[in-house]
Amino acid sequence: MNSMIMEHNMIYKAKLKKEFLKQKDGYLFILPQMLLFLVFMVYPVFEGLRLSFYNVGFVTKTFVGFRNYIELFKDSIFIKAVLNNLQFVLIVTTLSVVFGLFISTAVFDKTSKYMSFIRGCYYLPVMITMVAFSITWLWMVNPAMGLVSHVLNSIGIQNVNIMGNSTVALYILIVVMWLFNLGEAVILYLAAIIGIPQEQFEAAEIDGASRFMVIRFIIIPLVSPTTFYFVILCFIDVIKVFLAVHLMTAGGPNYATTTMMYLCYQEAFVMNNMGKASAIGMMMFVIVSLLSIIAMTRLKAKN
């Protein structure tokens, strides 16, 4: 019996070796990319996980177990950052889906040139960097010379510092993130709607269905996989928001716009608390990984 098992293992190993030799060129071709992926993606994850269990100083580090995680949940600033992230995710994702669907269903049956023009207009913010987009908005809400301040002054509202208001500042950032993500929603929804068989619309027209009924009973159900995909994509993108916060508010006023990513940056590079920053990073990594697994599983099931 043992000899049969050994013989089977030898045959299996020989097959693996033969298969590897056949694919050797392919493995050599992807080797540089795999090395870069391991060094710059995989290694930082494990190093961040390791550091999250330490209190890291300038020279030494002390093992503290789960203390960094426990302190985070006792930290009112971290709780505030989580709540801010939750508002970002819920509002930006909802607005992007609703307006993306609205715009796409309004233009999907227009001429190809008109659709291309609409796609280009809404996708323009996505093509420029978040740095340029944020600085443009920061100039617009500048209390001294911004466009918004000028409009407010013209209607009698003088000397308003919009970004100095803790409530308004958060929603200004939400609007910035929404407009930045809206173009992607429009592109995805238009592509999904164009992919719907024309027979569906022709049958609805013969049956005398109104435009609202076509949207309600044909378009929305058939683009639901796209909606699910975009929601997960937008969720992952928005939960990592950093540049807009860093450039426009620096987390203020009074931590009103601080997010998990910005707090991670502050703990790591301002407070020099790498252990706590690593704990925040690992929590975000777990959240994003779970969402990615759910998305991949759902999309695979749909296919």
Quaternary class: single chain
- pLDDT < 50 runs, ≥5 residues: none
Following the backbone from N to C, one meets helices and strands in this order, namely HHEEHHHHHHHHHHHH
CATH topology of the largest domain: MetI-like fold
Amount of helix: over 70%
Secondary-structure class: mainly alpha
Global mean pLDDT: 84
Major sheet details: 2 strands, antiparallel
Number of helices: 14
- The fraction of residues assigned to DSSP E strands is under 5%
CATH architecture of the largest domain: Orthogonal Bundle
Separation of the first and last Cα atoms:
44 Å
What's the CATH class label of the largest domain?
Answer: Mainly Alpha
Number of strands: 2
Give the CA-based shape: flat
CATH homologous superfamily title of the largest domain: MetI-like
Order of strands across the biggest sheet? 1-2
User: What number of domains?
Assistant: 2
Which secondary structure elements does this structure contain, and how are they paired or packed?
Blueprint: H1 2-22, H2 24-51, E1 54-56, E2 61-63, H3 67-74, H4 76-107, H5 112-127, H6 130-140, H7 147-154, H8 166-194, H9 198-206, H10 211-222, H11 224-239, H12 243-248, H13 260-269, H14 274-302
Antiparallel strand pairs: 1-2
Helix pairs in contact: 2-14, 3-14, 4-8, 4-11, 5-8, 8-11, 11-14, 13-14
Produce a short descriptive summary.
It is built from 14 helices and 2 strands; from the N terminus they run ααββαααααααααααα.
Explain how this protein is built.
The protein is mostly helical and 303 residues long. It has two domains: 2-51, no CATH class; 67-302, MetI-like (MetI-like fold, Orthogonal Bundle). It is built from 14 helices and two strands; from the N terminus they run H-H-E-E-H-H-H-H-H-H-H-H-H-H-H-H. It has helices spanning 2-22, 24-51, 67-74, 76-107, 112-127, 130-140, 147-154, 166-194, 198-206, 211-222, 224-239, 243-248, 260-269, 274-302; strands at residues 54-56, 61-63. Strands 1-2 form a two-stranded antiparallel sheet. Helix 3 packs across helix 14.
